[in-house]
Amino acid sequence: MAAGIIIIITVSDTCYKNPTNDTSGPTLVELVKSLFPQSTIQTNIIPDERKIIEDKLKEYCMKNADLIITTGGTGFSNRDVTPEATRAVIEKEAPAISVALTIESLKKTPMAMVSRSVSGICDKTLIINFPGSKKAVIECFEVVKPILHHAIEIIKNDTKKVKSVHDSMQGHVCPHKISSVDVTKVALRPRESPYPMLEMTEAFNIVDSVMKKWVGTVQQVNIENGLGYVVAESLYAKEPMPPFPASIKDGYACISSDGAGVRRVRAAVSAGDSFDLPLQPGECARINTGAPLPPGADCVVQVEDTKLISATPDNETELEVEILTAPKPQQDVRPIGFDITLGDPLVTEGAVLDAALLGVLAGAGYQNVRVRTRPVVAILSTGNELQDPSEVTLKPAHIRDSNQTMLKALLKEQGYTSVCMGVARDEAGALRASVAAALRTADVLVCTGGVSMGEKDLLKPVLTQDFDATLHFGRVRMKPGKPSTFASCQFEGKTKYIFALPGNPVSAYVCCLLFVIRALRVCEHRNAEFPRMRVRLTKQFQLDPRPEYVRAVLKFTDDIPSAEVLGNQCSSRLLSACGASVLLEMPPADKDLRCLAAGTVVPAIITGRMDLN
Ligand code: AMP
Ligand code: MG
């Protein structure tokens, strides 16, 4: 999108009086910057005054701002008037934006019911109200992020871009788009692939060296959305954990120097309670796991090591208990900082956020983490024979598109999100338009089909002739996946990367794992390799002249796991990948070795989960 002006307005009396209170505005600026790196972002802090809000909105609409996001003043209190001011300015409401914000926010908190956000358009400016809290701002931005570019383009009447997005969403793009690929001389097509056959290691090296040049930045994610991201900054404990001496047991907090014997039960402390008056010698306090030790206490005696001596007649209160064995100082106490001391490293730069790390960050008060950005990935299927999977009845000579669904899920399994761009027909103009729409949306395009030797396999010429793409490779010595193609090109001022994979579902599956996942990991500066292990074949295996990646499940019955090949390995039979936890790396056959016997140990790439079924 052309660089425009985006305005962030914090509407809040308190922030107006003291701008240092404004955390939502700066957060929003960071989020907007990551989505619109070329736009000029201006900020404002104004009080909850309807007239002032209206005037500001009008001023920026007059200046043709592309987008105004307000934060604050959307609630029920009588000073909250941002929605009223917005409604007075907009000419058209955009109720679906507000509905989407409400639906998503309600999933997080019922408090979303007390937000009254309004969205709409004034002339060429889109105005959206966000609630005032920083958390809400982050969540709401995630909701509107996917439509902002497109919405602004429509409002600005950027017909070229709008059309390409619409076309790509229809699945079939306009077939009249002009391609420079000449498809008329079928008889003159090459009978042998003009692309050199690369070895796997060469192909991997090329992917690594090309993708290393992808310039990523840093973005802030809320910990709720952080799973799988690579952390871009080391974070340290800002407070000790536990922040108070905490009981490890349900029992009695005591003074250890009192030794064994009878104690007066002074009080009860449950988790979450605090207790001010110090214990006196001879006293104890009933305590629960996770509760803070009362001042003066230095140990906990678990309930199993005590005996009730006396209680109130109604048995509701213990009066005296006997401590059966003399406790030691600090017995069953987690002192301050036992788990995490102040200043301890919590997460180091380069770590991948997993469930436990996210829990650690949540416990340490970090709501947001700076992480390495990832390329946006788009998936495109190609083929005249393809129907949408939702279509019940197949037309003659048609099949349903399984690759988009499979690839999106495969990327997700490996931790990456992607957008599906539909199906393009095997026509140069249609391919050109679909590829253009995808490249406008994404940094990395994964398309399937149309890269083999048929006269309808037009993707390679479309990439080179219409997009001036450099084909880094167009053929790899591997099975499945021989025609795998990797290209890059300049598109609207940015470098784009294209993985054009063969259409057979298993080829697409294996090549996505081996090339695309690798590429995405390189972009995040992670180790690009899958881990490997040694496994034992349960049956003999006929080798192919090409190195073969064979889908298998593992059985953990022996010291070396045994690998059961998942049936017929034909590249169209996606059932051979169902439940696969490894790709066996079979060596190419040569004149001395045509078959591996049962019991042979082979290397396996661990690509899936190791569930014991
Ligand atoms: P291609 O790579 O276009 O020559 O296609 C090779 C084989 O894969 C053909 O049998 C296609 O019908 C099939 N195929 C291509 N794309 C898909 C897809 N998206 N889903 C399922 N099968 C496909
Ligand atoms: Mg095809």
Descriptive account of the structure:
With 613 residues, the chain is α/β, with parallel strands linked by helices. It folds into five domains: 164 residues, Molybdenum Cofactor Biosythetic Enzyme, Chain A (3-Layer(aba) Sandwich), CATH 3.40.980.10; 168 residues, MoaB/Mog-like domain (Molybdenum Cofactor Biosythetic Enzyme, Chain A), CATH 3.40.980; 47 residues, Molybdopterin biosynthesis moea protein, domain 2 (Alpha-Beta Complex), CATH 3.90.105.10; 89 residues, Molybdopterin biosynthesis moeA protein, domain 3, CATH 2.170.190.11; 75 residues, Beta-clip (Beta Barrel), CATH 2.40.340. Helices cover 26% and strands 26% of the residues. It contains 13 helices and 33 strands. A six-stranded mixed beta sheet has the order 2-1-3-6-5-4, with helices on both faces. A six-stranded mixed beta sheet has the order 13-10-12-11-15-14, with no helix packed on it. A six-stranded mixed beta sheet has the order 22-19-23-26-25-24, with helices on both faces. Helix 8 packs across helix 13. The longest helix is centred in the N-terminal third of the chain and has 22 residues. The radius of gyration is 31 Å and the shape is flat. It starts with a strand and ends in a 7-residue tail after the last strand. About 1% of the residues have low confidence. The site of magnesium ion (MG) has 5 residues, from loops. The site of adenosine monophosphate has 19 residues, from loops.
